[in-house]
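The pair is set out directly below:
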Amino acid sequence: MMNRPTDLALQEVQQLLDNKPPVERAVWYHILSSEKWKKEFTKNVKRKCRDYLLNDDQEMVSVIDLLHQKYVEANNPVKKQIDNRLDSILGDTKESIIQNDIVRKVCEVERLSAIPEEKLVTWANVLGALLAHDLKMAQIRRFMGAVLKVEVDVRLEGPEGFCKDQVVYLKVLLAYAAGRNKAVRPLLAVIDPMIDRIEGWKDFQQLVRFVRAVVAYHKFYGGNE
């Protein structure tokens, strides 16, 4: 059975995550998901903190180090309990970020072009970090390719003739991909309401910029090839 110090360490991890801004929460989700229980766990966590501009987050590093020590000392049944509990914390964190910090705010505007560029970049940063561990680069590039094809087609015909019907199919494409691979679902959750808020060329251009930024951040966070 899990001992009290281990339970408290897990509770503290959750509390620290809950109190961080979205970008930091997403980055910690990525770090913990990708490095969990690996050899030289603490060393790798500290290195990634430096890489991703979180080098001053000593409180989180200390708690994670303690949790790792408890994991190493535990027997196999307790290891499984710790692993399941951390997976649950990370899963809840990911869902909360997607729904509360991005989707809900997208749904507050009527058109995508009304969203400030700075906010879009922040959301792309968050989404790139969340997707980097589970979603392969080829999959996200495939969607970007479909978006860019629409952009090229519209430019050839003339942006003034842009029609929303030209982008609605992108929702179907993502839904199909998400049905085959659940790692695509966070991308679908964000892109779907964004497409609903595309009425004109300026709105679509916002989507193009957002998708490009997500791909860039996915790469920055070491997204799987």
